[in-house]
Amino acid sequence: MRDKTIRPIVLVLLPLLLVTATASPAPARISEDQKITHVLNRLGFGARPGDVERVQKIGIEAYIEEQLRPERISDSRAEDKVGDLNSLTMSRSKLLEQFPDPQQLARRLGIRNPNQNTGAIDPNADPAVEQQKQVKARAQLQQYMMENKLQRPPQLLQQLISNRVIRGVYSERQLQEVMTDFWFNHFNVFWDKGADRWLTTDYEINVIRPHTMGKFKDLLLATAQSPAMLFYLDNHLSSTPSPAVEQFRKRANPNNKQRMPGINENYARELMELHTLGVDGGYTQKDVTEVARALTGWTIDQPRMNGSFVFRPQMHDRGEKTVLGHRIPPNGGIQDGLRVIEILADHPSTARFISTKLVRRFVSDNPPPALVDKVAATYKRTDGDIREMLRTIFYSDEFMSSENYGQKMKSPFEYVVSSIRALGGDTGGNQQIGRMIGQMGQPLYQYQAPTGFPDRTDFWMSDGALIARLNFAVTLTSGRISDTRISLNGFKDAQAAALFLGSPDFQKR
Amino acid sequence: MASFAAAPSFLVRAAMAQGTAPSIDRPILIAIFQRGAADGISVVPPFGDRNYARARPQIAVQAPSREGAETAIDLDGFFGLHPSLSPLKSIYDEGHFAVVHAVGSPDNTRSHFDAQDYMEAGAPGNKSLADGWLNRYLQGTPKTDSTAFRAIALDSKMPRTLMGSAPALALSKIQDFDVRGGNPRQGASSDLYSAFEAMWRNSTFDAIKMLKSANPQRFQPENGARYPNGQFGQSLLQVSQLIKAEVGLEVGFLDIGGWDTHANQQGQLNQRLREYGEGLSAFYHDLGDRMRNVVVLTMTEFGRTIKQNGSGGTDHGHASALFVMGGPVKGGKVYGKWPGLAPEQLFEGRDLALTTDFRDVFSEVLKKHMRAADTARVFPGWQPGQTLGII
User: Fold this and answer.
1) Is the pLDDT of residue A475 over 80?
2) Which ipTM did the prediction report?
3) What pLDDT band is residue A125 in, cutting at 50, 70 and 90?
4) Which end of chain B is flanked by fewer CB atoms within 10 Å, N or C?
5) B383 occurs within a structural domain
6) Domains in chain B: how many in total?
7) B residues 70..99 contacting A (CB < 8 A)
8) Does the distance separating the beta carbons of A121 and B263 come in below 8 Å?
9) How confident is the model at residue B42 (pLDDT cuts 50, 70, 90)?
10) What CATH number did the domain enclosing B119 receive?
11) Which residue of A1, A360, A462, A469 is the best one to mutate when testing the B interface, meaning the one whose CB has the most B CBs within 10 A?
């Protein structure tokens, strides 16, 4: 339906098509043309002009195989376009230096910042004078940041969003972009939570992206040892309560007056509930505690300096643990946590849970059980090879069935990217686009809960979200997004293009 | 209607709900989330507890006195209101403003993010719930005459509290709830608008039209009410306009940030509470008689440490205080058992102990004010404890 040549017909017949489509009994298999549209919509973010013709030429299977090997696809256009996003290639320490926390910076420079006043408090201070001081401090800080070419942390978020939008629109590695979106959401972290503002960039670039189509176990371990996840789900604080730890803490920072934290179950629970086994995956509260004990000492070296993963034996619980029936002998050190990752990755519930989520993403809101079984079997056979699981899905009857054709609601991000692609657009993925995606209900990198955005139609559609989508269609087609240009080729005018993007049909993939 | 086969389920549900006019006397609940953990013992200082001033030599709100203006406003000889909340005192005296103290979530997390999530889900410690407590209330009490405006969040995205399968609307500004043309100063051309409407044939366009014809923005604040500048005041004003326009509003949600007062908290709280108190007071007076059906319920994820820290602020704590305001409220009273501030009375040796589970309060408001038959599904895994008798 998204083939450019039939667009004008679609526009005229749209109301009619919607009625008749449901009235006539659907064939079990879809046509060859529909198959092409389908793989472009599901393995990627829809067709750009010329894509359909290209897949016609090389064949659907060749296209799928190509997408499953992103490292073999040259992607210079997308790489060029993201070249200006300087934070994406910075080391974590450089990034903290270039995008400092303004309050910390003010303190370091001795600029009086009223929110970080550590001196005595004068109850008789004149509010007007205080106000003036605040204004002055802010101006001073602004001046310093400008002179030293420093940027504010929200720029880091904006660059992450621009990177996703630009790559979604331009990248030839479409499946890689879809899988990045999928895994980031599966292993969600919340950009706004404290240090994660400076850690999320590294997380996406060095933890998620390199592991999207490898072994699940490697991805799982990479997230478990990422500072972003360690911080987000508090494992960096998790420690066995012992006098040795207290001594260590005192030595590390004599002014540390915080209570000893003890174990923190936050990550251990989500690791099983959300990352591997699923909530009904067969673990108990006792398993949560045992996993948390096994992971004590998995922490961040110098979290305030944007440090990296470190194992601290002083924080580690050296006792014996039992996780899901497996005995972990005492004094295992870092091996305890590695063993936990292995136990979880090898568990049949994990195979099932991950398969279900992949099928939901690529096939249907209601994953067909027979296909989930097949994908889970692939997981077991291949030691959790994500590429092979995807292959099982893409070559299944369920994937290419008419029942599942054009039925998945696009997320706001998918909607925006597919719109720009459909109109052969050029974009810099600016703030306006990020804001509009947020208004449609998907503030990227800012989903607070560890569950990630739900992958379901009813989550994405509300009256407000629909209005935001229609307004995006109108704004984009009338050329009112400052860094984005589209082509109206094949449309009568901008209004016709807006109606195409705003149609019920185009909300789906 | 055949086109609904391709439309999301909410559209079908909402469209089926069209047709009858909403009942004017329906009860209305406005929930306000103070994000960042408001310091309950500054908001409602327990000046009668001698340990209060001891724990906070610099930042305790001073006990009421006739001379200074910057002292607590006496409520009952033991508790007071923060001086910046003076606009609320007359509502308290009229008996339509109540405080619940030492209230919160029994979960001991001190993470903003977890605690907000638990409170919005209505299920401390449970992270597997996808929907929020207010949405589950809506799911459990379907109304035949409900409109697209039954549940509204004054926000660009749906807050966790209202997420779920029951229809709810998130809009940050009434004037944005419209399909616009290429020129943002004009509406969409009538061609484009009609074409979209024909395409979608759903309740959204009815909602747009309903909002346009109700024109809530024609309602100016009444009874001399003055909303404070800023997002909070403007959001409250819009809620008031939606209520006056009788578009079927039953549940409203908004939030106000800036409560995470780790340093020099007096100045921050003065400013924040002034805006907060002026906003609530303006809303109450603006609605006037209409407040007979309205209850405003406030919440915050947790309280703050009893002792002040080294920088004139407070760190993350446990229990806090909340407000219940409106016509049906039995106000003029501070509810809840006071746990005391002596070191041995504190939660984990540092925080205000909890004597009222927030779900006791929320559940009572839903049952007695919103006439919910059962709140077991709204707050899964929880047995109601005490009844406060606040409604």
Assistant:
1) yes
2) 0.80
3) low
4) N
5) no
6) 1
7) 70
8) no
9) very high
10) 3.40.720
11) A462
